[in-house]
Amino acid sequence: MNRKNIYIGAMVTSLLAALFMGTSTMVFAHGGAKGIVKERMEMMKSLADSMKLLKGMMQNKATYDANKVRAAAKVIKSHASEKLTKLFPKGSGHKPSEALPAIWTDWDKFKELADQLSTYADTLEAAAGNASGPGQGGMMKGGGMMKGNPMMQGNPMMQGGGMMGGAMKNPGALKSMPPMASFMKISQTCSSCHTDFRLKKKEK
After folding, report:
1. Coil, strand or helix: which one is 97?
2. Residue 93 phi, psi dihedral angles, 5° rounding
3. Domains of the chain by range and CATH?
4. CA proximity to 137, closest of 63, 187, 76, 48
5. Between the CA atoms of 172, 58, 85 and 195, what dihedral angle is there, to the nearest 10 degrees?
6. Please, what is the angle between helix 179-197 and helix 35-58, to 10°?
7. Which residue, among 41, 37, 47, has the nearest Cα to 187 in the 3D structure?
8. Helices assigned H by DSSP within 94-161
9. Cβ–Cβ contacts within 10 Å for residue 138, how many?
């Protein structure tokens, strides 16, 4: 396994660990939630369920099913962009909400992440049927990603800043890449949002 595959595999594991640690804590915090706070917590639970389904297929722990990937991508997109931001009106940061005040003081960044979630869900839906080698999603059993995949070899998205940097400049290119690429971007977006805008457990 080469160094690039090890690095990408480690990055995926790190992003998923951060994402699912956050969503699992959030699920247990639903008690007493009402109104808009309860609505967005339920939305986050739906997102977490979709990501869990995708994670299993991307890591070869479940049989890859392009139709299920498309369906999960549609669910994610249905909760993204303005559908997400409208659930965070000013003054709705009271308990049991775990939203940080930074959401409203840095609204532009929060909105950008919500829009990115929609963009990458769209590219995942389009890429669901793309060939990716063993496991179809792109994650190899040994922990490497996209190893030996002709779609990735020589691809400019893997050069000049790497796949992730290239995807930021041209997200549409992900539609012709393995679905794992879009899944990684969704995971990265969720992780960034949790890091910047969600109350950490130790802060309670």
Report:
1. coil
2. -95, 15
3. 3-203 (1.20.120.10)
4. 63
5. -110
6. 140
7. 47
8. 102-105, 107-127
9. 32
Residue 159 has pLDDT above 80, yes or no: no
Strands (E), 27-159: none
Among the listed ranges 3-17, 54-68, 131-145, which one has the minimum average pLDDT value? Answer: 3-17
pLDDT of residue 163: 54
The rounded distance, in Å, linking the Cα atoms of 76 and 196 is 20
**Sorting pLDDT into bands at 50, 70 and 90, what band is 162?**
low
- Apex CA 47: angle with CA 43 and CA 50, to 5°? 140
Q: Which pTM was predicted?
A: 0.73
- Higher-confidence position of 82 and 165: 82
43-61 pLDDT tens trace: 999 999 999 999 999 999 9
* Ramachandran class of 143: left when φ > 0, alpha when ψ lies in -120 to 50, beta otherwise: left
Tokens at 123, concatenated: 């590219």
Alpha carbon separation from 131 to 88, 160, 186, 189 (Å, rounded): 38, 24, 19, 24
User: Do 22 and 194 form a contact (C-beta atoms < 8 A)?
Assistant: yes
Distances (CA, A) of 99 to 36, 105, 140: 12, 12, 36
